[in-house]
Design a protein that fits this description.
Elements (H helix, E strand, L loop, with lengths): L1 H38 L4 H6 L22 H30 L6 H14 L1 H13 L4 H20 L1
Length: about 160
Amino acid sequence: TGIERAILEERLAAERAAAIVAAEAERLAAAAAAREAAAQTVEPAEAEARPARRERRPRRAKPEARPVRSWAPLRGLASRYAVAALPVLAAAALWLAALAAGRLQLPDVQMRALALAVVLAGPGGALAAAGARAWFPRLAWLVTLTALLALSLIGTALLG
């Protein structure tokens, strides 16, 4: 019932308060004993027997920072976007090489299949690499490499 619960809570609160008072008294007694032990002086013979402390060496000054090279920001930018740019550049190079070699004189059905394959491997591979870089950064170069291998197979079939 509610009355029994209130009586039980009061008894538990009283026991908790008594335990806190006892713990505080024990802590104060331990602190007093520690102060007493620290107050006792060390005899001079024991003080001389202790090894001397090593002196601290002064810290060396930090070397001045190297000047930032002007191309350093570009290196980070290039490595960031190279994952997506390589498949597109390789697809463009393949298309231009086939155009220069005169290998794009194909019937419409074959030209559609070739264009679809180049678009899926080039810009499609770049889009997949950008997505991989966003969600799975370790796999971004693997996706790029896969797109480049697909383009090399297309190039082998197209250019001979």
